[in-house]
Protein 1
Amino acid sequence: MSLYSSYNDIWMLDGVRTPFVDYCAGLSAVSPTDLGIKVAREILARTGVDPAAIGSVLSGNMAPGDCYQYMIARHIGLYAGVPQHVTALNVQRICGTGFELFRQAADQIKLGYTDTALVVGAESMTRNPIAAFGHRTGFRLGAPVEFQDFMWEALVDPAPGITMPQTAENLARRYGIGRAEVDAYAARSFERAVAARERGFFGGEIVPLTSEQFALEGYATRGLRLTGKQKELALDTHVRLSPVEVLAGLRTLYPDGVQTAGNSAALVDGAGAAIVASGAVARAARGRPLARLLACAVAGVAPEIMGIGPVPAIRLLLERSGLQLDQVGVLEINEAQGAQVLAVARELELDQERLNINGGAIAIGHPLAATGLRLAITLARALRETGRRYGVAAACIGGGQGIALLLENPDSDN
């Protein structure tokens, strides 16, 4: 059964994120927990919300960046100054995790559990482990000593027996999407992201990173340690002009396929955070809230075409919310693969001038659990910049799901 939740008076006060930094680069030594603590502290400071006012901490993280992942939500809350009696929960819906955090927070507020929630998504693609799942019982003489690359193997869905990029290839064949079209879309994603960065758009959502420590009285000190020569990271490092001519020269992942490393989501490390609150809290807060949360929808699709997942999620979202697609001014749909997002646009008959207008994950990157936070924050800020009223952010989900979030710009009548 598909899920739909609607909300009458629930708000995103504001949101921030780290720069998204290329795999095996400046954040390679940083745990997802510490990325999460950094953005949690920043969003509390930016909104002026007293940590003691937080009634629930919700975090998302897909792959362990160390052996202590199971305490990530709790540690983010504690080191951000949230009182010890406040509970913490880690949430996982693969690439839809960041959206699921908003859904869980809004549901908690709607049910009266709290009136203010801290939501944080953090992911280190670099620190995905090399894992051994069968060694607990020891080794037989001459048996292979098997280790698996957690990130690489996780790209395979063993049910249909194909990888995530192969699901995009299936969509490319189904919708008649050719290599040239995918490369052209990817080049446009890079171009839009460069333009957004040059006009300072991303500066409003990015918190710069430096090496620093996070103290908590009575407990071990944590912190960030940047690697390499840079003393500060303030920009998304994968964003660059990537002309079609350059992208066309890259080798496809599969023979006769359309997907390459250049037209698929970039591997990056990063985190995002937001404060979700009731209307009463939002009206008493400092400054105008960034966006109103109207609804969220989750739907299932066949695993072998998992990338089409945003389609039924968006359709359910709009149908139950009483809106038409042409009323949605801006859409942020995660660019897991170029062919995947093009298939979604084709199925929805979507005008691409409203889609990922500041670039997408092909250019900026896709740190799994943080992506939904980034998309929602970017969407809310794009609505404010353009003056549009309604926006939808969505993502496909490995295994065959889609999730979509409906936001409203509180400053628009359009």
Note: The longest strand covers residues 3-17.
Protein 2
Amino acid sequence: MLNEKQKLDTLIVLGIEMNRIHDLDILLERLLARARQFVNADAGSIYIREGNRLNFAHSQNATLQKRLPPGEKLIYATFSLPIDQTSIAGYAAATGKMLSIPDLYKLSPTKRYHFSKKFDKASGYVSRSMLTIPLLSSKKDVLGILQIINAQDQEKRIRVFSRADEKVMLHFAGIAAVAMERAQMTRAMILRMIRMAEMRDPKETGAHVNRVAEFSLEIYEHWAKRRHVDQKQIDKTRDELRMGAMLHDVGKVAISDLILKKPGQLSIEEYEIIKQHTIQGARLFSNLQSDYDETAAIIALNHHEKWDGSGYPGHVDPVTGKPLPVYASRGPGPLPGKKGTEIPILGRIVAVADVYDALSSKRSYKEPWDESRSIEIISQGAGTHFDPELVEIFLKRLTAIRAIQDRYSETDIYPESDDR
């Protein structure tokens, strides 16, 4: 539990820490964890504003987490709330005011807002004290809502949020909102690039790239923990991977519509042109300005390589499009693909995530395959198309994979709820 001096010292460096995180989802996860740490809260949630609604974006609960096996994460459903004065989060967003509630189960019936007990009944959890803080942009627009639940004393007993807690969380919310506004701008730019690709290739939807990115994070985190990778390095790579995976097929903007949208089977020559999207995608990030550019370039170039060496584009310089010097003397003809661990790990991870989503999603030319059939293809590809270890990890994470599919459906619509 942080003392007052530690809280002030942490606030000073918080902005620097948060501004190092570029991906919106990774940022929300870290913000919520830090907010809970500041006031020693057991649980919390973050909502993102979209129009006149609040979309439930992230949740944490230490008590429920302890009930899970090691390495498992809480699975939570997504929903949205209207921005009005009927729910606690909606009220805070509608009024721009912070709400501190000592006991949710003793909330006065005269209040315009109410607390739904549905989550508590379903999970066996008891929500008592709650602090709900609007996250305001520089123009004082509501970007989202931060809710932290069940403040605890040093003996882990539930307590009310103090005035000192409220004061420090208002400062925290200001810093968080700045980081969030910047991350939303970054996400918007990435989605614009993806919409450009979608205009050329209808398969590249926002839902598809979000699923591929989240599948990739799920695989990477468990791969890294098996190797005892330092948590700081895991966090850094997750941030880079989340954005790089979303942009894995952005190179398709350089491929002709006549090929991308061809209704029939591609000719050998047309397929060779399609393969160039890996090189074109990597080339977009070749003027390296940051680690994010490097990661995006690696993923774009390598996500169609195969474990057995039968993938593409092989050992090529993405800037020139020519074979690397050691392969330049081979003469005409396709280069051999990279093989095994020659393929960078992030390329191997995105390969599994991308193929699984393509199999299990509806496309203009096919209906979604059922889960068992999609899993069978991934399993059969272990050792030929895919890194066998990554397939093993993927299959062990199917519960989380299904939750990601539910969260990022093609309709991209959040179900309504009267929760909190």
Note: The beta strands are 41-50, 53-61, 80-82, 99-101, 130-136, 142-152, 158-159.
Protein 3
Amino acid sequence: MKQKLILEPENLKHYKEHLKNEEKSSATIEKYMRDIQHLHEYLADWETLTKDAVIAYKTYLIQNYASSSVNSMLTAVNGYLGFIGLYDCRVKLLKRQRKIFCSEEQELTKSEYMRLLKVSNRKETRRINLIMQTICATGIRIGELKYFTLQGVKRGKIEVYNKGKSRTVLIPRQLCKKLEQYAKEREIHGGSIFITRNHKPIDRSNVWMEMKKLCKKAGVAAGKVFPHNLRHLFARTYYKMEKDIMKLADLLGHNSIETTRIYILSTGEEHERQIACLGLLT
């Protein structure tokens, strides 16, 4: 069935409001809108929106993006098509075999993390040093830093609200002492501890840029240094010690164990060592 191209600003505006009402995070909403705009640009030469057009777009994505990115972009497109009533134009996601190990080029190791802390342990980089420790020691999302208030730190726990639910995050005593001392030095008497010069909670772009500045001096590949990798390091370290994926999922705020599985994948090199230890070769 042929349909007019319905990617007009008014429809996109309504869909954005719909995502807000669904309590999607601001980062998720921005990504969805970028993905839909990407579809719009691809369909510039199409007069009508048909299932064939969306299938052609899917083929284009497969030829130019990794399968995980393809599925992520198609999820946004399918959501929008469903919202405007074009259910018949939605397409199937790619079927992917579950990964059993992660890329060594992308995994931030504990020793690399320690090097980042070492080079940032100066007065001028004290904030990013403590931010990295806070994320890595608690497993929080970068967007949850704003909940680290002085009041919560003094209690030793904070309440985090994300993805339509809340959870309690316990703060290690050693980290509490560090954060209280930092707040005292910066004359922060209440509210969020990690703030900008304008006294607003620091955002992910600030953290990302400050972390990237540490790469060269720490001798760590820039492709490994971003806030979410600290969350992955927390997950892998916790799981190696406790072997409790259910509790880890609760700590990370995951709805699905399958999501948690991704966080605790070992590297290909470690997987090779494990296979070699089976003793099945002469």
Note: DSSP finds 14 helices and six strands in the chain.
Protein 4
Amino acid sequence: MSLTDYLNTIIVGDCLANLASIPDDSIDLIFADPPYWMQTEGELLRTNGTKFSGVEDNWDKFNTYKEYDEFSEKWLAECKRILKPNGSIWVIGAFQNIYRLGYIMQNLGFWILNDVIWSKPNAVPNFGGTRFQNSHETMLWCTKSQTAKYTFNYKTMKYLNGDKQDKSVWNISICIGNERIKDEEGKKVHSTQKPEKLLYKIILSTTKPGDIVLDPFFGTGTTGAVAKRLGRNYIGLEKEAKYIEIAEKRIAKVKREENSLFDLSLEVKPPRVSTKQLIEGGYLSVGEKLYDKKDMFVGKLTSEGYVDDSHDVLSIHKMSAKFLNLPNNNGWNFFYVKRNGKLESIDGLRYEFSEKVK
């Protein structure tokens, strides 16, 4: 089978065998949520004496560290093989396994870009009061080589973070309520289901529309559901029939959202247009007043497209930097004009001008 036959499907069976069927250098992004080998012993009891349903699944059981390491090295080596030269991989884990996975990944030649902390404001308590509450997991974001020209949608993530550089600590609640998939008896179907918001940030930040996202431990299909919503392709690998049935039904209900943000409109390089061109094109006028976003008057436009504040005549960049008392600043994002009594960004005007002259 060709790679196109696998797109937007779940490949049933053992993850190692199915990874071997994926062509070399073919996947844009991998999200891997492997067994953590939690090594829990005995029953976990809440403070009221009732049993807490933790990770007791057979797929999370290993006999020795050597066995776990050998399994991890095999699937990670396959992931490195199928990843495109400029692709990237996210691997999530907790204190039980993330240090072993990181060691193996570095030995395999992966290059770590970030370790991102998933901080859980509603994490499960430490019922016995014997340790600190374990309220985070760690994600390793890596490329297959140090020289990879990987995708990172910096501007998009900055915009979503209140126009501030996004950080490597993500506060995202664990799955609860309607998002947590449960069976007919009201019990959670998958013990380690990840929240869609987590995959939303991962996929949106490190892929482009139409990219292929592979999840070798697909579970109930969170990766596929989010990928479909964002206009990316997915490939899932899963051997548990009960998870596959739920994942297929879940993803079938998802529709792609038409959203310029998902199409990375913010990552497109701005048009090469000058303020003088906007004046010549009738989008701005000589002597027009310029304001900041708080409606404070700054200066007037000159015939050459500069800003005159009655003291200096400077470019939009230098004048905005002067006003903000900064060494440099992007004037396109700073200045506004008034249209029908409302502020309008001059940045938007240059895009309008660029579209008209195409």
Note: The radius of gyration is 26 Å.
